[in-house]
Amino acid sequence: MDPAGGMDAEVDWQGGAIFRPVRTGNAFEETVQRILEAVKLGVFGYGDRLPPERALAARLGVSRETLREALHSLQAADCVESRRGRYGGTFVTYRLPAPDLGELARAVRDMGTELEDALTYRLVLETGAAEQAARRELTAEQRERFTRHLTDLEQAPPEEYRRLDSRFHLAIAELTGSPSLAAGVAESRMRLNDLLNAIPVLSRNIEHSAAQHRAMAEAILTGDIPTARRATEEHLEATAALLRGFLG
User: Which of 99, 130, 218, 248 is the most buried (most CB within 10 A)?
Assistant: First the structure.
């Protein structure tokens, strides 16, 4: 924790999953979108400090003026706050909403027939990401960071579980070394984000997920490609089944 009372998020934020360069002429809108995605996907949680303006603007490929306009708008929406002084910066004040079955039903109605497509897309992308991550020679720093993500998730209180679960899955995508694949995983997670966050945190399901997450992590860290793919597929199919159960 930093002396200002917030957290500096332990995340490879330059890896490409979230803060990829803005590509359209709508620089302001896309900058707001990128930052909100990072917050809603759990890359940066409540109290975390966002990267310095100079570095973040360079990563997004926008001017510091555009970035500041985006941050001011997010501050007006109570998603972030700016603090001055030696330990100042921009800190996240957004909190994920509590699980809500009514919200789940609304999100499902909004998705319509896209739900099964989104689940299939996620399955293909994330199993492929786990397989590729297991293929790579990871550095000691990458191993340490990834292990820390797993530990944080295993020790998460119920109100933090969904955010840290999202961060764990994005961390696997970052390990692939492919910005395009990492961005695809982030995109697929955003399509399902409202649904996943609206699922009640069930202790029995968390126990199953914990075993699956550990199997995924151990397979990736030991380079066991078939097990990495199989464990990820099992985990994602279980999540999809839980979703369908609440929807049915």
Answer: 130
State the amino acid at position 211 in one-letter form: A
Distance from CA of residue 2 to its chain's centroid?
A: 22
Residue 36 to residues 76, 80, 93, 123: CA-CA distances in angstroms? 13, 10, 11, 24
What token pair was written down for 126?
Answer: 């994330």
Tens digits of residue pLDDT in 76-100: 999 999 998 888 899 999 987 776 7
Question: What are the structure tokens assigned to 144, written together?
Answer: 């340490």
For 103, the token pair is: 């919200």
**178 φψ region: left (φ > 0), alpha (ψ -120 to 50), beta (else):** beta
161, amino acid identity: Y
Q: List helix spans (H) across the chain.
A: 27-40, 53-60, 64-76, 101-111, 114-135, 140-154, 158-175, 179-198, 203-222, 225-247
Q: What are phi and psi for residue 99, nearest 5 degrees?
A: -55, 140
